[in-house]
């Protein structure tokens, strides 16, 4: 028998994850966009920063992107990309929206983002 209360709870949790993720990625996305970069760049830089030994095949698997997408994204020098990643993370972690997204997720309510 399908437990409708459980299904509704799962749907609520998925929505909360979506809003928390959106709040977490909004500012870095805007920073990357100003530099002509996209989310795939952000993901590449994140995983290379966390796992410098990762192979190209490993990146393809982790990112679930095609080799063509990975190659197109890798035209930026790594040093510049790491600076962008560091800047984007610092701005995001210092934002009130990050705190609001996390708090809303923990309180199981929709976040009220202000763009700050």
Total number of domains:
1
Q: What is the distance, rounded to the nearest whole angstrom, between the alpha carbons of the first and last residues?
A: 45 Å
Number of DSSP E strands: 0
H-E string: HHHHHH
Overall geometry: flat
Low-confidence region ranges = none
Task: Label the structural class.
Answer: mainly alpha
What is the beta-strand fraction? under 5%
Structure description:
By secondary structure, the chain is mainly α. The chain has one domain. Helix content is 74%, strand content 0%. The chain is built from six helices and no strands. Helix 1 (4-34) packs across helix 5. The chain is flat and about 50 Å long.
């Amino acid at each position: 028998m399908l437990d409708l209360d459980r299904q509704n709870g799962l749907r609520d949790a998925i929505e909360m994850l979506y809003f928390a993720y959106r709040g977490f990625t909004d500012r870095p996305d805007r920073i990357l966009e100003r530099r002509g970069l996209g989310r795939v760049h952000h993901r590449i830089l994140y995983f290379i920063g966390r796992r410098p030994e990762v192979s190209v095949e490993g990146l393809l698997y982790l990112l679930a992107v095609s080799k063509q997408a990975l190659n197109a994204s890798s035209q930026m020098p790594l040093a510049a990309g790491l600076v962008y990643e560091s800047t984007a993370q610092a701005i995001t972690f210092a934002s009130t929206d990050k705190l609001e997204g996390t708090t809303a997720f923990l309180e199981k309510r929709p976040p009220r983002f202000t763009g700050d």
